[in-house]
Each structure stands twice: as structure tokens, then as C-alpha cells.
Amino acid sequence: MNELTPPAKRTAKDFATDQEVRWCPGCGDYAILRAVLNTLADIEADPANTVFVSGIGCAARFPYYVETYGFHTIHGRAPAFATGIKLANPELDVWVIGGDGDMLSIGGNHLMHVIRRNVDVQVLLFNNEIYGLTKGQASPTSRAGTRSPSTPLGSVDNPVSACVFVLGAGAKFVARGIDAQQKDLPGILKRAHEHKGASFVEILQNCIVYNDGVFADITEKAVAADRQVVCRHGEPLVFGKDADKGLKLNPATLSLDVVAVGEDGPEAAGVLVHDETNRTLAGMLAAMDDHALPVAVGVIYCEPGLSYGEGVAHMKEEARKRAKDADLKSIMHGGHTWTVSD
Ligand SMILES: Cc1ncc(C[n+]2csc(CCOP(=O)(O)OP(=O)(O)O)c2C)c(N)n1
Ligand code: SF4
Q1: pLDDT of residue 180
Q2: What is the model's pLDDT at position 119?
Q3: Which of 56, 210, 214 to mutate to test the pocket of ligand 1 (most atoms within 8 A of CB)?
Q4: Which ligand is the nearest neighbour of the Cα of 25?
Q5: Most exposed of 2, 160, 178, 230 (fewest Cβ within 10 Å)?
């Protein structure tokens, strides 16, 4: 009898296409692509069962570069396409890709609904705080004062925080990662993939051409340890090069303060332990964006629950039970019907 050789495990390279990648040299999108390809290899994704769906923008070119099924759809509407794809074939593993303009300007409405419905897809929002493809106009995440072709005197708009927005829409999985953090990003993407329901991951992405260095005050090697707190479920929220700082709840202001962690450790200093199932804590962590507090990265919130697809399947079952003996004709002629005369 011939012995069958088991198929070799796919590597990240096997998930890359032969398409010429058309991002600017040095764009953060390359690093995100690498992290996603590594994740697909790690989770042993089946290319025949995987779909990448995007809207419009530089980020939205993503499906061309992944050796799976893909849809490059219309501006802001990737969440709507993804919802239809997932409902039509719940077996498919669906990833939604878009920039901050695509998902929070024209697509803000669609993002809200895919999240609140808890459709079982992974939404990756590449946040470079600018419209890259259209040459650098201010986006909904651009900081106040951002000078751009559309805001030559500096933006007077208040920026939206992507993670706070989706939490407000009822998100049950919220995480934040950074393009260049190749060690951590695949782990975050893997968690997003494991979660049943809509998983939202904001990825801080450097647009080297139109907004270079916008996250430097968070990501530069010299400041990263002091400017980022990594959220790990069940572990104290400490940060700093020597883990010498921590986040503590201020009961008087109901806000987070930074405290020094002494020799007695984080518990003695009253540092909070991260509980990714705590929505109130998630709201506070997601909102940290000024210099007084570090920026939260990692899995900020995770609450397992019924996904939209499961809800729709239950509803269909119930409808079938109720209309067991009904035929199409009786359904068509049941209820309020009337005849229109000439
Ligand atoms: C209906 C419509 N309106 C506007 C545009 C122009 N447009 C194309 S991409 C884009 C925004 C891109 O920014 P972002 O989503 O942040 O992605 P990035 O290019 O930075 O990755 C805009 C406004 C369009 N293509 N279609
Ligand atoms: S314009 Fe910016 S976001 Fe677009 S490919 Fe170039 S560097 Fe990347």
C-alpha cells in the first residue's frame, strides 16, 4: 500500500500572492501584511474558506496580497459586504480591512452595525490618522491642529477614538496593536480570530508619506515603555522600562491615575489587575490618549456571547417551527392582502 505524505503545513509565504505590492516603500501596511500572513499560517487557515473584504483606500488594497478569496468593494461598505458573505455562508472565515477614513468617515455607519450586530468577522482598522490614498487630507482620527490639504490652518475637528467608538456600539472584542510590533501583533490577531462574534482591532499604522511619525511619541524605542501599557488579562497594568509605574483607579474622580510601583510590588501600590471582561475598565483604557496616561495596547476587552449568525439561525429555526404546515401560497395569501382593481 502506498503511504500518503501528509500535506505540508502552509507557511506565511504560501499565503502571499504574486501581485506587485503597490504601497509606498516604508509604509506601515507592509508590516501589518506580514503579521496577518504569519497569523494565517499559525492558525492553519484554509485559503479556500477564507475571505478578505475591503473598502477603498491604501489599506483596502489588502485582499490583492493575500492568497485567499477577496473582495475590494466600495468606499466604507466592507462591513456590509462582509455581513452578507458571513450570513450566506457561515463556514467562511471573514476578515474586514479598512483605513480610518474608510471605516470612520464614509463607513462609520456600516462599522457601527457590523459591531452592534456582533457578526462573526475580524475587523482590522489601519489607523494612520490621515487619508493616504487621496494624498493626505485630515481624517476623523486626525488630531486637532493637523495641517493637511483639506485643513491648511490646522483641523478644528475633535478626533474620534476608534476603540471608544466601537465600545460605544457594543463591541465584544476590542484590541489595539502597532504595525511594527511584529512580536505582539500576530498574537492579538490570533485572539481576534478565536473570538466568536465581531472582533475589532485598531492597528496604529505609519503613513510614511502623508503623516510620518504621527505615533512616534508612543512607538519610538526611547519612549515606548513609558508610553504604552500592555493589557494582559489577569496581570497588573504596569508599564515603564522597569515596570515601575502602574494604573490605579482614583475613586474620587472615577478615572485612572499613574502611580509609582515600589519594591513591594504592584499590588501594594494599588495597581489595577487587567480584567478583559470588565467593560467599564475597557472604556477607561481605550480612552487613554493624552500624555498623562500611557496608550493601551493588547486585548482591551473580550466578552464571549451569541454572534449574529447564531441569532439569525435560531430565528430561522423558530420561523420554520411556527410555519411547519404552511406552504408558500398560504403564506403569500395570509395576513393583510388585497386586490387592486383597475
Ligand atoms: C464615494 C467615494 N468618496 C470618496 C472617495 C475618495 N477616497 C478614496 S480613499 C479615501 C480615504 C482613504 O483614507 P483611509 O480610509 O484612511 O485609508 P488609507 O488610504 O489611509 O489607507 C477617500 C476619501 C471615493 N473613492 N469614493
Ligand atoms: S500614502 Fe501612506 S498609507 Fe498609502 S501606501 Fe503610501 S505610505 Fe502607505
Answers
A1: 94
A2: 98
A3: 56
A4: 2
A5: 2
Does the pLDDT at position 1 exceed 70? no
Q: Mapping DSSP to helix (H, G, I), strand (E, B) and coil, where does residue 334 land?
A: coil
Cα 111 from Cα 108, distance rounded (Å): 5
Q: Which amino acid is at 237?
A: L
Among 22, 207, 211, the mutation site with the greatest number of ligand 2 atoms within 8 A of its Cβ is: 207
Cell of 147: 495641517
> How confident is the prediction for the chain on average, in pLDDT?
96
Q: Is the CB of 73 under 6 A from ligand 1?
A: no
Q: For residue 102, how far is its CA from the centre of ligand 2 (angstroms)?
A: 14
Q: Which three cell numbers stand for residue 22?
A: 503597490
Using CA atoms, how far apart are residues 307 and 198, in angstroms rounded to an integer?
8
> Which residue in 20, 50, 187 sits closest to 121, CA to CA?
50
Look up residue 151 and give its DSSP letter. B
The answer to whether residue 5 scores a pLDDT higher than 90 is no
* Long-range contacts (CB closer than 8 Å, 24 or more residues apart) made by 110-114: 110/76, 110/77, 110/78, 110/79, 110/80, 111/79, 111/165, 111/166, 111/169, 112/165, 112/169, 113/79, 113/80, 113/83, 114/79, 114/80, 114/82, 114/83, 114/198
Q: Is 31 in the pocket of ligand 2 (CB under 6 A)?
A: no
DSSP labels, 91-136: TSEEEEEEEHHIIIIITHHHHHHHHHHT-S-EEEEEE-SSBTTTTS
